[in-house]
Amino acid sequence: MGEIKPIYLEEKLKEIEDSGRLDYRSKTLPTWCPGCGYFSIVEAVAASLCELNIPNENAVMVSGIGCSSRFPFFVNTYGMHTLHGRALPVATGVKTANDALTVVVMGGDGDGFAIGGGHVPHAARRNVDITYLLFDNGIYGLTKGQTSPLSAVGFRTPTSPYDNPDRPLNPLLMLLSHGASWVGQAYAGRPDHLHKMITQAMAHRGFSYLHILSPCVTFDKTHRTYQNLGMQVRDLPADHDPSDRLAAMREAMHDETPALGLYFSEERPTLGDALDGLVEKAGGELPGKVAAKPARKTARR
Ligand SMILES: Cc1ncc(C[n+]2csc(CCOP(=O)(O)OP(=O)(O)O)c2C)c(N)n1
Ligand code: SF4
Ligand SMILES: [Mg+2]
Fold first, then answer.
1. What total number of domains does the chain contain?
2. Residue 132 falls within a domain, yes or no?
3. What pTM value is reported for the model?
4. How far is the CA of 87 from the centre of ligand 1 (A)?
5. Is the CB of 41 under 6 A from ligand 2?
6. Which tens digit of pLDDT belongs to each residue from 246-272?
7. CA 28 to chain centroid
8. Domain of 268: which CATH number?
9. Block means of pLDDT (10 residues each) for the chain, length 301 residues?
10. Is residue 2, in this structure, part of any structural domain at all?
């Protein structure tokens, strides 16, 4: 058995300072409730931007409306806090206008699968080269705890005082069938794994969808709690083949015991590639691509 070492606060603070990831946090501190799962997501995104050495001015965070969608305020990058459910089309425009940018979309389960649900299939099938981080707390947090399309059956909320009778959607299965070229799942209670998954999702060329399970500690005391999720989540089987879409769909069917990890990944032309091809076919000239700023010389980790 390996040696167990205590972690001292001073050492931890020094490690965080030396890592360089604080450069990706803004001076605005998150306004989330203490204990909200979203804190580990902002930490993980900052760590991934740092690890991938993405210049702050080359990254754009685009969100909708919700507690989760406050995210762009808390990172030191460009950001757009758009309309409820409309982050994906805005992000598609940003990426299409300037392919050199790293565009990350974030939002809640209500934002993405209720009001914004119509946009998800199209971003996936067109393989827009952006990353979509879906913060799934199974509830409308910002508006004080109503059911969302991802709420569990039997969940009692202000909009379901006699228990929620509606079967939740299965977002992983949907994204796999819509044609997303990268699909994964992580849990806010496993921050190291979450960070690895976000890094992989951002590094993928094409539409990457990361489903992040995250407790709303204020409005859900019974279902998606740290205690319940801690017992439910498992890793994808070690022999899972992420190039096999059908195998990924079979795994996604086990939504009672959600598996964490990379479900599916494939390389295929992006929307940007298709548009460039279209310009060429029409005999037009491609405008000079805006050059990406060079990555920082050394990763400060
Ligand atoms: C067009 C429109 N409809 C409704 C609302 C009210 N509203 C704001 S956030 C929200 C849902 C938030 O839930 P979710 O997207 O899951 O994010 P969370 O707060 O849980 O992170 C709703 C219904 C709104 N702001 N705009
Ligand atoms: S209401 Fe829920 S989702 Fe919103 S910040 Fe508080 S704990 Fe997080
Ligand atoms: Mg929510």
1. 1
2. yes
3. 0.94
4. 12
5. no
6. 999 999 999 889 999 999 999 999 999
7. 21
8. 3.40.50.970
9. 78 89 95 97 98 98 98 98 98 97 98 98 98 98 98 95 96 98 98 98 98 98 97 97 98 94 98 94 78 50 35
10. no
Q: Which two tokens stand for residue 271?
A: 């929307």
Is residue 298 situated within a structural domain? no
Q: How many CB atoms are closer than 10 A to CB 104?
A: 30
Examine residue 50 and state whether it is found in any structural domain, yes or no.
Answer: yes
Instruction: Pick the residue whose CA is nearest to atom 20 on ligand 1.
Output: 141
Ligand 2 centroid–CA 104 distance in Å is 21
Determine which residue's CA is closest to atom 8 belonging to ligand 2: 36
CA of 232 to the centre of ligand 1 (A): 27
How far does residue 167's CA lie from ligand 3's centre (Å)?
16
What residues make up the domain containing 30? 12-281
